Structure formats: structure tokens, C-alpha cells
């Protein structure tokens, strides 16, 4: 049995009155990928922050090569051979690729920055990662996948033995995710210890050799991947067994409520035809860059189309602003929850009533009582876990934030609810709750368009699936009429 | 990294200079260029200091008041003791300015007060202190020693020491921002303050340093100003801070931080400088000059507003908690 | 700083700790002033004192809304100067009081609309846009008037800035109180105010929730322009003259009033009562100092220090108090 490169035992950390970690245990081995699994709030982020030197543990021990160490700061962590690839890219957009890689460790000559060496070493590192990029390119022009590569290059430049990856494929397309996993395997073969944090079980099963599961701030299980299954992992995560099923529904779709014909907005999408029926979930599947979000933004009135028509319940509409769309009963739950979905600095209640203020007011004057009770009602109905509706949304977990966003739109009494990646970055438990809610809503007569990049989700939830690629509609499938491979091919074929 | 904007501005500046030179033969003469350099020198130095601060996503509204206070202080000392060597006085001015800048920096770093608020406050405070120090009196050229006034006018290869100082400042700043870790950290801190900590950059400390440097430059310029104009009074350089900021903005220093070049700042000072020197020759009354420069600034910011990085940033955001 | 978050419910539901603090300091200053200057509490003296701040405070009202909306306008003094100069020239041509006032307001509106165009529609960051327009407006005032002064105003005009409505209550004061009430109602009682708080707190999320962001921004700048125009009418009327250097430095005093009043420069927070209290505080402090013949420029030192201390206090409190935990992990 080889010795672990990195070992944590008994790590505890509290912030004020909240105990983020109670008993953190972890062992990472050279040349292997360990998946760190847990719901939101289980303590994964705190663990990562402790390992990267941002926080110091209240108690417990960290050992590297079985020697106890102290990680007091970021430079400490780097010196000890630990690198972190964050979900929110640590990227400086107006600096070049080369400088991003060497930020904090710039090569010098006679005390001055040696740009030539920096560029050369950048080229070498990127070649190692099979990603030829111009070192002088401004980082702003990089895609999310490329930004991750830059972060990995940064880790390589430090010759890190421990590489921690926090949800690295969260915003990547299928293809880019595969590339990334290939790089992870290569890093593993070079003898590094990888800690891979993810919510996506298919990836975890594909890439990880070992697993470590956290729940409520403590390690509840660890071992070799081959000895367990997805079900086993999930039950460790949530403390109970959970069928990864999607809610069953008897699909009874009514009359057509939305008809989109030839909608075009260059260069984002072209000649899109789409029909939505009352009481149905229309899944919109495709890879990143297919133009789905852009299409939804036009339907919501954020942008104008160049050509084409949108007919809502028999009347032609051309929304000039989200305000008009909302009044017509079309609402959008955007992909970017933190900046677009919810106003993090405002309270739960303020968020929930925001689009519906006009309806809750009299002659423009707010009726505080009515607003507050409406907010409380919807917050309770969706079971938002919080102290009260005056709590700022930023203090909630991702899943609960999404519930607030949903509550907001449901209060606005929409006819059509557009969901853009509604369960992205949410833990298993909240995900199921959102699915359940979505299912109930259509049964009550709401019509839903669900944009998703997760094929199982689309296949499990949608009555019909619209597939887009590169801004065009490539196929429309009835539920059950096609298998996953067919749908995927439609999304990938040129 | 030469941006297209710099090239465009450079071309415009050159075109303006060319046009002025064609119209007024004296403009492109040696004397004309020397006078242009002299007129732009102080603005250039201050703009470089301000640029450092803006790069870190902060702003310094107190530079002119700092200038006035430092300048008045050394002028008063010179009046009281004309024999005191300039080798002491000039560094003293810079040191004083640095201390004043440090006050700004500390408030931004440790008290976490947004820089616009801090420098609004210190602007008023420093200006008031000028009055207190001078009791409302003026220090006139008759009261200043010959050495005090003469130093800036000394010629070296045809150009005044003032112009050479400005040039040195430009070169130093360029060197600092391009070849030192300290300089690069200004960009890192301003570009992405939330992520900067992960790159080992303490945003607060970096901003503090920027304020100290900006203050030191302002202090030095305090001496340069009172020496050049041979007078020191309470309202010295009143309102000048906005010209300084305008020069930075015209020169492509993004108000959101993290973006900008020294060459841009130079152009941002030269362009309005040439305009200001050309306008009187065109017979434009001095009273209209403010309006013209205001118009120029407004047009420049509209052009610069096509700045994709300004999208998600708050203006003059304070650091994350 | 003000912790008055935009809570659901009536004004009473809002935490008014900052406003209470301001009121206490104001009271303390009034007591101090009355002890130091024997005739301070005389109604006429107090009324005189209000002239000190009502014009600036008028501008501070929409400025507060602007800053809550995460914008800023440093061109207000320039707008004031331009309005004043416009009125002066029109007065020379024999225009009467009411048309003059309308002209002043109209000029302010145009200036504000230009700012609105730059910021809301052309998306120029507000601080740089208004630095530009500040020079532009002030510059035009100088260009048109040079170093001359205009003093020929119609006889009725002076009542606006110097007249009294009932007893010692001046027209200026009444106008300010009216505007304060209107702005207060707008911000705290209407849905428009709620949307403004959302806009300032998170512009993107507000846009995605149907708030017409561009419209709000434009009208905020327009309103600030009108208020500057109104202040121009009152100030010009009170001084009885126009010169291009009128109201020099006022933009920073107005902004100081707003910030002292508890409005955060990062947007999304602040109250009108706070701004009103801050305006009164600054007004009475400077008036009291003026009675003691302390020069204005020295008063600036105190105001400047006050500003920094006031905004910095919560940070100091947080450092030495609890270890502010954000339960986000």
C-alpha cells in the first residue's frame, strides 16, 4: 500500500457560529484521481480553501508525505506543491495568457521580468497540454475551457504534486469536457494526485479511481471507486437511498400556445421554428454555443430578432423589453443565477416580489403587508430553507437561491416559463425538488421550455425535445421516440 | 501590448500637431515644442500618478489639493529660510506628498472606505490645511529664493529641467509597470480583485502603494508648480484633479481598473495640451477653452466607452469583503 | 453606514440606526451652537441658517437616488452655472420672472438629459461622462459670460430666493420640504423606489426581472438636472447676480451630503430621511462655524474629516467586533 501524498485528519473549521467542517478526513495518493463528493454545504469548498491556504483550520492535522505541515497562505500552498483550479476561473482578462499562467511566479533576469522566457515556457506548457495558444493573447478572448487549461498550465508551472479541481466541467461543452478529462488522466499518469470535485456522476465514474464523500461537514465514506456504485455514493451523500428517477407524468398537452417561425438573430441563431403546447415541457438540448440561451433571451425580450415571427396564443408579439414579455406572461429563469437570476444583495422577499410590484401595489404605492405575505407564501410553498424572507439571498445555498428565482416568477403568474439550465451547479437533493416542482407546474397547466445540456435530464423531463446545433434546429423528438445516441448525434452532426 | 486605441489616439494627436504646425509656423519650432513640453510636464507627472491609482480600480481626487499643500509648505519654508538647500526641499516636498497619499491609502486599505469617498474628504481637508498653514497669505516670487525658482527653469540640451523630470517620470513609470512585479501587481489587483488573492496579490496593500506613489508625485509637483509659476496661494491648482483624471481617461486608462498604458497617458496629456496651446493662437478666448476641453473629454469618453471590460464592473467598486 | 436595507413593509420596518445617529449629532450641534452663539436659537437666525443648505440639499435629493442606483453626477454645479447664465442673458432681454424660472429649469433638464444620453444610452461610465459634461457646461458658462457679472433681474425674481411664505419659513425652505417629502415617498413608498434599490444592488438581475434599467437611469439624470436648474433659480435669485464661477465646488458638497446621509457609493442602500438629516447637519454646522467667523475653507477640513470617519466607522466596528461570518460555503 503506497503512502498518501496528502492526508487530512480531524480538520474542523467554524465561521462565527456556523460549523463548516466538523471532521475532515481525506487521503490523496500519487498517480490517482480522488473524487470529492457531497451536497452543497457539505464542506467541500471550505476544505479546498483550507488546502489552498485561504483559511486556517481550527483544529486537525495536514500531512504531506506523512510530515505534518502548516498551510498559512497561498504562497505556502504553492510551495508545498498544491494547486487549485477554481470553478470561477482565476483569470485576469486584460493580461496575456503567458502572464496569467505565471502570475505570482514571473521569471526574472537581473531582477527584471523576463518576458521572453515567460513566453517560451508558456508555449512549452501549453504544448504539454495539447492546446496551442498564442502566449500574447489577452485572456479575455479565451473560452471557459481554455481558461481552465490556463489554470492547469499554472499548476504545472509550479510542478504541483497535488492538483485540486473544483467542478472543472461545469460550463464546458461535451467535447471540451472530454478533452479536459483526457488532460486529467495525463496529469494522473505523470504521478500527480488529483482531487476532483464534481456533481456529475457519469464523469466521476469515468475518471475517478477513489472517492471521498462528505456530509454536513464530516467525511462519511472513502474508498476505491471499483468497490462502489452511483447508488452507493448517493446514499452516502444524502444519508438515504434516492432513486435517480425523474417524476412520472401523464403527458396531456393542450392547444398550441407559442409558435416561433423563422426566427433569426445573426450570428447567434438562424431560422428557428418552435412550437410549444399548453401543459407540456419542451426540452431544448444542444451543446454549448448552440444558440439556445440567445434564443430564449430574444423570446424574453432582452434582445430583438432580425427576422421571423413569434405568435403567442394567436397574437403576434415583438417584445422590446423583458417588462413587455412579463406582462404577456412569458418569464425566464436565466442560466447565470448569481448575476441575472437573483439580486444577491437583496432579501429573499425583495427578490420574490420584484417583477410583480405593480400588481401588488395600489396607484404605484407599495402595500408592504401584501408584498410580505406574498413573498412568505411562495417561499414556504417552494420550501426555501432560510431564517425568514428578510435574509439576503447571497447567504443561501445554490439550490435555495434557484428556488427563490422560481418563486419570483411563479408569483408573476406566467403562462410560459422558460428555464435555462435550471439545475446547473445544484446538489442532488435540490435538483430533484426542482424537477418535481416543474412536473407539478405543467400538470397545473403551465407551459415550460427547458434548456438543458444534460441529456438524461432532457430525456427524463421533456415531452418533446428540440435539438439545436450552431444556431439551427436539427431535430425534434417526441418523448420515447429516440434513444440517447440518436439525440446526441443530432446535436453533434454538422 | 499596443492597443488599437493608442494607435488611433497617437495618429489623432500627430494630425492635430501637424495641423497646428502648418497653421502656425512657430508651433513646431524648437521654442514651440519646448513650451509645449513645459506646459504639459506637470499634468503628465500627475496623470502618471493618477493612472497608477486608477489601474488598481481606485481613484484619487485629492492630487491637486496634495500638490497645493506640499507646494505651499516648501514655499513657506523657503520664504522663512532662503538658504536651505533645494537638495533638502525637493525630496521633502515629495515625502510630504507621499505621507498625504499614505493617509488616503490607509483609509482605503484598512478602513475599507471607497476611494472616491476618502479622496473627496482628503481633498477638502488638504485644501483647508493650505489655508491654515499660510493664514491666507500668498508667497510671492519676491519672497522666494532665486535658486528655488530657478531650478525648474535650468536648461539641459535646450529643454528645461521640468521637461526632463517629466520625461524621467514617464520612463520610470513605463519601466515599473512593464518590468517589475510591483508594477504588474497593479494590473492584477485592478483587473480582478476577487481573484487577485488567489494570485498572491493583496489588493488593499497594492492600492495603498499606488496612493503613496501618486501622493509622492503630487508632492513633487507641488514644488514644481509653485516654482514654475513663482507663487503659492490657497487656490493653487484648484480643480486640476479633474483635468488629470480626464487625461487618464482620454489616454485609455479604464476607469474600471486593470487596463492602460503609459504611452496612452502621454497621449492623453499631449492631445489636450496641444489643443490648449493652439486655441489661443486661433484667437479663441481663454474663457471658451474650458468648454472646448470639456467637449473633447466628452467625445473621448464616448469613444472609449466602447470598452467591453466596463460591462460587469461596478464603477469604483470597493474590494470584496 | 446605513443598514437600511430595502425591507418589505412600511418605513417603520426599516432599520434606522444611521438616521438616529445623525439626528443625535444634529441635536448635539444645535445645542453646541446655541451655547456658543447667543442668538442662535432665534427663529430668524435659524431661518437664515436654512438658506445655507436648502439649494444644495435640493440637488442632493435626486443625487441620492442616482447614487443608490449606482451612478454619480459630478456635473451638477456646471449645470447650475449654465442655467444661471442662461437666465441672466434672458433677463437682459427683458424676460419676466416666471419665464425666467422656466428657462432655468429647462436648461437644467437639457443638461441632465445629455448626461442621461451619455450614461444610459451610450453606456459611458457615469463618473467620466459627468467629468466631461461638468467642464463642458461650466466652460460654456465661462465662454458666454467671460469675467462679467449680470445683475439685471426683474424685481419679482428676487422673491424666489429671498422671500418668505409664512412667518420665518422661506420659500426656499418650503420648496425643499415639499421636494423632500415627494422624493421620500417616491423612494420609500412606491414600487419605483423598490425597483431603484434592486437596480442599484444588482443591475443585471433587475433588468432580467423586468426593470426598465435604461429608462430609470435616463430619468434619474434628467431629474438631477432639473434639480440643479431649480437650485440655479433659487441661488441666482438669492444672490441677485450671475457670474460663471457661481456654485464652484458645489458638486462635492452635494455628494458629501448624500454620502454622509448613509447612501452607499456601491449602490442599493440609503434613505431620504438620512440625506435630509445630513443636509441639515452640514448646514447648521457650517452656519454655526460661520457665525464664529471661521473661514469656509477651514470648515472644509471638518467636513472632509467627518466624511471619512463616518464611512470608516462601520469597518472599524467590524474589525474589532465579531468576526463577520458569511455563511457561504
Tell me about the biggest sheet of chain B?
2 strands, antiparallel
**Largest beta sheet of chain B: what is the strand line-up?**
1-2
The total domain count of chain B is 1
Rounded mean pLDDT of chain B is 86
Strand content of chain B: under 5%
What ranges of chain C have pLDDT less than 50 throughout 5 or more consecutive residues? 1-15, 322-329
Number of helices of chain B: 13
Q: At the third CATH level, what is the topology name of chain B?
A: ABC transporter involved in vitamin B12 uptake, BtuC
Share in helix of chain C: 55-70%
Termini separation of chain C: 26 Å
Mean pLDDT of chain C: 86
Helicity range of chain B? over 70%
Order of helices and strands of chain C: HHHHHHHEEHHHHHHH
Summarize the biggest pleated sheet of chain C.
2 strands, antiparallel
* Count of β-strands of chain B: 2
Description of the structure:
The complex is a heterotrimer of chains A (494), B (321) and C (329). Chain A has 494 residues and is α/β, with parallel strands linked by helices. In chain A, 34% of the residues lie in helices and 26% in strands. Chain A contains 18 helices and 22 strands. In chain A, strands 6-9-10-3-11-12 form a 6-stranded mixed beta sheet, sandwiched between helices. In chain A, strands 18-19-20-15-21-22 form a 6-stranded mixed beta sheet, sandwiched between helices. Chain B is mainly α and 321 residues long. Chain B has 13 helices and 2 strands, in the order ααααααββααααααα. The model of chain B is unreliable at 309-321 (pLDDT under 50). Chain C has helices spanning 17-36, 43-51, 54-68, 76-92, 97-121, 126-145, 158-162, 171-189, 191-201, 203-208, 213-239, 250-260, 272-291, 296-320, and strands at 164-166, 169-170. Chain C has a two-stranded antiparallel ribbon. The two termini of chain C are 26 Å apart.
